[in-house]
């Protein structure tokens, strides 16, 4: 999805950077003392240049055996030994052990290489993002393409719900932050995601009637401004039933295509736009009014529902081209 300040770092586990990173790739651990004073433990001078890359650092640590095996099985060793820089949110062996029994073994099979690659690259952000910068973010786009959510609560940082237990392990080609759970990207496409949510039953029925299922299950990426069932219910009585008739297929397809943008536009980008061209060919107007994002007069209720081929933003009204 994805430099901690002293105050925000309170509550991080006090672990030795040497044990995790090896003698040439040191980390900084911040822990809270018995009198609520903050103690910063550094095991190497700030200006000491790390000599090990991310992969060699993980191997030397000894607590990332599963991660290293996964990187090897996914064919990502050369990538993570490359110039970078990269920021890696690295799950420990204990983090992988939390997954359902048999999950790791299944992912390591050659036939699941693509899925494993997607999961691992979901833990990597391009650039070197130190902890002090991480806490200023609410999210970060990963190498996999989807965005991880970042939150700070009670002095603790979490990434997609996984707790960051150690930060700023410097490597020659980036930085590693240790997390206590494996992050999993969305693996359902737009159609399957919508079908799994009862709030979109009318939309799913309309997409099927319009013959757009294969399109929205395609590679994309797409951004869908998805009307909820309540949004469709606002239309004049009989409108939906009429649109679902075979003879009105083209009209329905035109309306639905007006809700789709042929690109992945996250909420943070939507608010910077004044319009966006849709698959329909026409553009929707975008504006921010009284703290709400409006799409052609429809209010955006929920943002950034990520899917394997794009993103869904929920709107409260059907927009008409």
How would you characterize the overall build of this protein?
It is a single chain. With 321 residues, this protein is of the alpha+beta class. The protein has two domains: 17-179, FAS1 domain, CATH 2.30.180; 190-315, FAS1 domain (Roll). Helix content is 28%, strand content 27%. It has helices spanning 17-21, 54-61, 65-73, 77-80, 93-97, 103-107, 113-121, 131-134, 190-195, 201-209, 213-216, 229-233, 239-243, 249-257, 267-270, and strands spanning 28-32, 38-42, 86-91, 124-126, 139-141, 147-153, 156-159, 162-171, 174-179, 222-227, 260-261, 275-277, 283-289, 292-295, 298-307, 310-315. It has a seven-stranded mixed sheet. The chain has a seven-stranded mixed sheet with strand order 11-10-16-15-14-13-12. The protein is elongated, with a radius of gyration of 23 Å. Residues 1-46 have low confidence and may be disordered.
Strand order within the widest beta sheet: 4-3-9-8-7-6-5
Instruction: Name the beta content range.
Output: 25-35%
**Mind describing the biggest β-sheet?**
7 strands, mixed
- Please identify, by name, the CATH architecture of the largest domain: Roll
Q: Any idea how many domains?
A: 2
Could you please say which CATH topology of the largest domain applies here?
Answer: FAS1 domain
Number of strands: 16
In round numbers, the mean pLDDT is 87
Termini, distance in Å?
33 Å
Helix content: 25-40%
- By DSSP (H or I, 4+ residues per run), the number of helices equals 15
CATH class membership of the largest domain: Mainly Beta
Protein structure class? alpha+beta
Coarse shape: elongated
**CATH homologous superfamily (4th level) name of the largest domain:** FAS1 domain
The radius of gyration computed from the alpha-carbon positions, rounded to a whole number of angstroms, is 23 Å
Unreliable runs: 1-46
